[in-house]
Amino acid sequence: xxxxxxxxxxxxxxxxxxxxxxxxxxxxxxxxxxxxxxxxxxxxxxxxxxxxxxxxxxxxxxxxxxxxxxxxxxxxxxxxxxxxxxxxxxxxxxxxxxxxxxxxxxxxxxxxxxxxxxxxxxxxxxxxxxxxxxxxxxxxxxxxxxxxxxxxxxxxxxxxxxxxxxxxxxxxxxxxxxxxxxxxxxxxxxxxxxxxxxxxxxxxxxxxxxxxxxxxxxxxxxxxxxxxxxxxxxxxxxxxxxxxxxxxxxxxxxxxxxxxxxxxxxxxxxxxxxxxxxxxxxxxxxxxxxxxxxxxxxxxxxxxxxxxxxxxxxxxxxxxxxxxxxxxxxxxxxxxxxxxxxxxxxxxxxxxxxxxxxxxxxxxxxxxxxxxxxxxxxxxxxxxxxxxxxxxxxxxxxxxxxxxxxxxxxxxxxxxxxxxxxxxxxxxxxxxxxxxxxxxxxxxxxxxxxxxxxxxxxxxxxxxxxxxxxxxx
Length: 473
Ligand code: C2O
Ligand code: CU
Known about the structure:
By secondary structure, the chain is mainly beta. Helices cover 4% and strands 40% of the residues.
């Protein structure tokens, strides 16, 4: 197993909500905790989460004995702490006030974007609302955690480079949702393109076209991750795809995933259990996994090929996490509630205005260039809309490949075949638009301010597939 040099010190640290469920079982203790560390909340007020995050260069060990220069976030409240990849998780309860003291120790400007969080536009960390924070600069982000769900944070400057080098971390907002699980885990899925020297490899033309795809797939920043689970247990996994271009199609032989939550929080009802789950870059899923195999079961969480166009070859399944049964759960989890959340469909009728967004790609002298409605960011004009108006967005993919389309600042409701919001798809902020097809979703414009929308294949966004949405107050 390849270990991150600095991760070892965090292994035995208590990982947020998972702490309370430790059983002191000797077998489980032999498997290291791969859960991302949790940022230190320095504010004694239980309704305020006040943390400090530093972005800084670091070194990791993706290949045994080879140092990889990288960038990571570290917990600024922990003296002597080192950056980690993924960065430490920001954990809050719904309704909490969040204060983040951010410092940039990178050699270039950066920002922090709170992907999926509804907040005031000035706090969104995109370059449309914030001048990037220079090296040695600092910025305080403040927002309220109004929605429970699985989110993540990452830079919005040269994102295809900065996120790839390691700047990304989970942001989890919880509440008492009545979902009884034996244990909760967070898996940040990613890949990196590493040379035999250990150095990260620069993007080639294919990477620019399809989004840099790595030769190593990572779960919580490591290859060869292992976890021990108890037979008869039910676990909740919060899944984040932080990769530049890779789609993860997860499979765990002998087990199925019950989707209970997506980008914007809990679904109205649990999905039927599925064998595979595809997660596009930027998306999140909350799933339940029941470990009801025979004693001693071993299974591999792996990602299988997702055909996303441009004739990318199928490399076969790639392992992410080895799962081993150890012991038996002491108490069987309570049945799932039939209703997980209230879903109110946005009022969509045949007269609701439809706004079209056509995603384009073409070759230019210095490589591929991307566009939305023929405009290439930053040479774009904002889309101007009125607050609280409901419209349908129709996003049309390019014929050559899939694009995960992301909108900042608000969630939307994907429409079903009948043209109405589909409750089974919940509230999303990132949706895959398969090549040669159109995806429709309904959105109510709120809050006011300047928001970005873009493809979450980061090379596409940085090379033009991005735009601004101005919501007038
Ligand atoms: Cu996760 Cu505009 O991004
Ligand atoms: Cu794209």
